[in-house]
Amino acid sequence: MTQLTLSARRAALEREWAMWVPGGVGVSGAGVRTEVAQSWSRSLRTVDPGRGHAPVSETDIGPRWAESALRGPVTELKEQLHSVAYDAGYVAAVTDASGTILWSYGGPVMRRRAEQVNFAPGGRWDEAHMGTNALSLALRTDQPHTVFSAEHLVAALHGWVCYCAPIRAADGTLLGVLDLSTTWQRSHPLAMATVRTLTSAIESKLPAAAPEPRGMRLTSLGTGRLMRDGQQIRLRPRHLEILTLLALDDDGYSHERLHYAVYGDRAVGASTLKSEMSYLRRATGGDITSRVYRFTTPLSCDAVDVLRAIERGDLDTAVRLYHGPLLPDSETPGITAWRDYLEVAMRNAVLNSPDANHALTYGDRAPDDIAVHEHALTLLPARDARRAVATARLHSALRA
């Protein structure tokens, strides 16, 4: 991209920013990417666009960096990171999962510029504290992002361009992000490729995935499976249905209520359910009480985790954990009722979300949902490559 083109783009973004951001209302997004306009809208609730620098973490960064899983890989790759930052005129930074910078490096000139806005260890760069920037978008979406000049919410950052990618552990856990930042005049399309390469190098040096956690874990979304201490316990579908019902209801079930939830109006003797419960107690180590059927300690379950995430407004986690309908092959009355409840809750949350990633992720699990695919297309900007995926899904859903 030529200097003239960069200057024109920066000027256009400055005009859009001046028109909408300072007032804090009516962010149109007409001249900016959809994800940036949405982030502006969210950020303005907590961040003053006129602030001069990022706030400082209240806790000491030294111990946090010393204990971070990223410290070893970053130290091993220090020469590469230093070379990229120093030779190309960038500042490199690594954050934790909360968006607090744990490590940074740059040449003398860029380091001084970075320190003026507290782009340095201890600086808090999540969306709630520093508004729209590449680090906050990468943390929120778990995807790489570039933020150029006046796409930043805070005016003090309009002289910058930032390239950022998330760093994940072997089990997929988000550990933090790697960012390369420089002045807007040095914007270059190869910078994001460099960030991706360095991020992959860091991830390759992280420890292997931790062993399966001890205890029981019930999977009920998209399929049914019970794991104990990393080993699968073989159960019939009926047993998985009962376990799912107990996991979803903390209050437990009387014998009569559970009997109806499992068998409905079918003529099934009371002894049948008692026999099933006896078998489940043996399979789970006797963790189910008798007078009222409930677990003595809550059973870890993906369906419960999704519900809790929706309840606290954490749709990022909900869509990540939602792997399909609750026990999709089950026709048990209690399961079908909970399945409908979960689907309605998830669908409404996604359709009310301004984040295209929610619609895209959920749309992968709901291929026939026309409204969700249309919602994704409404949110995605015209040149976003992900529109092809949403368009293909909508086409398939309309033909179904």
Automatic annotation (TrEMBL):
Keyword Calcium annotated: no
Coiled-coil ranges per UniProt: none
Database matches in SUPFAM superfamilies: C-terminal effector domain of the bipartite response regulators
UniProt keyword Transcription regulation present: yes
Organism: Nocardia alba
Superkingdom: Bacteria
Keywords: Transcription, Transcription regulation
Protein name in UniProt: Transcriptional regulator
BP-aspect Gene Ontology terms: regulation of DNA-templated transcription
Gene Ontology MF, one: DNA binding
